[in-house]
Amino acid sequence: MPADIHVFPCRSDNIGVLVRDAASGACAAIDAPEEAAVRRALAETGWRLTHILVTHKHPDHVEGIPGLKRETGATVIGPAAEAAAIPDIDRRVAEGDVVEVGALRGEVIATPGHTLGHIAYWFARERALFAGDTLFALGCGRLFEGTPADMWATLEKLAALPDDTRLYCGHEYTLANAHFALAADPDNAALAKRAADIEARRARGELTVPSLLGEEKATNPFLRAREQALAAAVNLAGRPAAEVFAALRAWKDRF
Ligand code: ZN
Ligand code: FE
Asked: Which residues, chain by chain, have CB under 5 Å from ion ligand 2?
């Protein structure tokens, strides 16, 4: 039986996600951006929280943990390298570890860049990637702790997952990301089409997450640092992709 996945807005621009195994009723929140919003999502779905899967230590991803833990007793799983900054953590995980939510099975992928201890959760059978603040729809996370080389290696790792993977990221930044993407990759027809679609969906008040990894590979400028068009856009024609990525990330920081 496939997983039930519910996506909902939290705080000003965070995205909350609940993943449930219908057979056992086990249900995980991906991060806990906001206690009240997660509670509301649980009430709406009628699901019972059993796990919280934390991607990284930033307050807008962990602030809801203590209240939700008190109320539900959910098991809190998070990155070992950031355990000291994650309240009520029960289990510390790292690259290659497996987390189970009922019969659902997620693999931990180390994704340094936004923070050094950041992790993503890859549910292969469900074709779902919970990427936190690493890979966004049409964007990527800011480099608070890691180097551009760290983030580029992380993005290459994620890009190796199947094209039909649904990407669940930590923020609804897609429209702003689209404006930058159009500036960096103006001749990309697939991007132009996607940007128009995003504009319409946001105007209707809809979330744009999840997206498909295949469409990210075709339209996300940070996954396209190998393309000559992107290298040329940052005046680095012929240079290595990691260098092009670094220049794109620096440009986006000023954009
Ligand atoms: Zn963050
Ligand atoms: Fe965040």
From this structure: 60, 133, 170
Which residues are close to ligand 1, an ion, with C-beta < 5 A? 58, 133
Q: How far is it, in rounded angstroms, from Cα 164 to Cα 161?
A: 9
As a whole number of Å, the CA-based R_g of the chain is 18
CB atoms within 10 A of CB 103: 13
Cα(46) to centroid of ligand 2, in Å? 26
Catalytic residue among 58, 97, 118, 185: 58
Digit-coded pLDDT (tens) for 192-229: 999 999 999 999 999 999 999 999 999 999 999 999 99
Of the candidates 21, 61, 97, 185, the residue annotated as catalytic is: 61
DSSP state of 171: B
Cβ neighbours around 5 below 10 Å, total: 17
Active-site residue, 133 included: yes
Query: Phi and psi for 137 in degrees, rounded to 5?
Result: -60, 115
Residue 206 sits in which domain range? 3-254
CATH of the domain at 130: 3.60.15.10
Which ligand has the minimum distance to the alpha carbon of residue 143? 1
| Side chain identity, residue 106 | G
Does 118 qualify as catalytic in the annotation? no
User: Model confidence over 79-125: pLDDT tens digits?
Assistant: 999 999 999 999 999 999 999 999 999 999 999 999 999 999 999 99
Bond prior to 210 in cis (omega within 30° of 0): yes
**Helix, strand or coil, per DSSP, at residue 181:** helix
Domain total in the chain = 1
Residue 61 bears catalytic tag: yes
Residues 6+ apart with CB under 8 A from 234: 184, 244, 247, 248, 251
